[in-house]
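Reopening this one. Same input as before:
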Amino acid sequence: MEKEKTRVLLAEDDRNLGNILKSYLEAKGYATKLCVNGQEAYDLFSKEQFDFCIVDVMMPVKDGFTLAKEIRLHDRSIPILFLTAKSLEEDKLRGFQAGADDYLTKPFSMEELLLRMEAILRRSGHTVQGGKTFTIGNYSFDYNLQMLRWEGGEQRMTSKENELLRLLCENKNDVLDRSYALNKIWQDDSYFNARSMDVYIAKLRKYLKADDNVELINVHGVGFKLVVKE
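Same output, byte for byte:
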């Protein structure tokens, strides 16, 4: 079963930017709630559970510094990333004093925002990028870190192993079509690539042998199935 998505509270008074950020984060697997002022964000934070906060500094009703301080009174560990149009050193210092984990100056790229978030989440021990950590019986598969873990061991995955196991997890207890997987990972379903994929399947089967309730089987003429007995 896939772990629950990382829940993000986004406080941004520019509705256009806020909607763009919300859509982007949701496309990347983050469950995101948008608020357009600091008070609205604080009220929502008080009612619901969140794993990450993105806070614009300059907001009406209640500014980002005040919001961050109030959030910190309730939760001392939740990651907070500030967004600001200012780049003055004193503003950055004030942000960190208010409890920020990082600071991003506008304009910024979506890719930079995502990388900053992932770095903060890794440091804080939260799951990075909702929907990218899978439970496979007694195994935990972290797609972002390319790591398969189980009691007593762990296996760092190659890129191809990582992509293939993710497709199998997304189709758990269902058939993963061979041609689909080849085109998705190798961009070609040639005979040579098919033989290469068989080698990777054998490696994954070896990694997963520590749990008798997990089985990676061939479905003749169709593809593969990751069978996990619940």
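So the earlier flakiness isn't reproducible anymore. For the record, The chain has eight helices and twelve strands.
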